[in-house]
């Protein structure tokens, strides 16, 4: 079993977790821990681990872009 945990300190992590949660799976999910975004992945296959991490970071980039635009509008 492979296990990965990534902790990311970022502004409004709580909102970002809510945006990413619909894509969570039983073996790959994100959550809020304190003020940090935490991504956990548990899998048997290294390819699945790599794909899950890549998907989360692509989604984080998209959410961050939207967040930046919304902050500029305020």
Q: Uncertain segments of ≥5 residues (pLDDT<50)?
A: none
Strand content: 25-35%
Biggest sheet record: 3 strands, antiparallel
Quote the average pLDDT.
92
The Rg value, from CA coordinates, equals: 13 Å
N-to-C terminal Cα separation, in Å?
45 Å
CATH fold naming: TATA-Binding Protein
Order of strands in the sheet with most strands: 1-3-2
CATH architecture: 2-Layer Sandwich
> Which class best fits the helix and strand makeup?
alpha+beta
Principal-axis shape: elongated
Number of strands: 3
Count, helices:
2
Tell me the helix content: 40-55%
Main CATH class: Alpha Beta
Number of domains: 1
Tags for this entry?
74 residues, alpha+beta, three-stranded antiparallel β-sheet, single chain, TATA-Binding Protein
Task: Explain what this protein looks like in three dimensions.
By secondary structure, this protein is an alpha+beta fold. The chain has a single domain, classed as 2-Layer Sandwich (TATA-Binding Protein), CATH 3.30.310. The protein is 49% helix and 30% strand. It has two helices and three strands, in the order βαββα. It has a three-stranded antiparallel sheet with strand order 1-3-2. Strand 2 (28-33) and strand 3 (36-43) form a beta hairpin. The radius of gyration is 13 Å and the shape is elongated. The chain starts with a strand and ends with a helix.
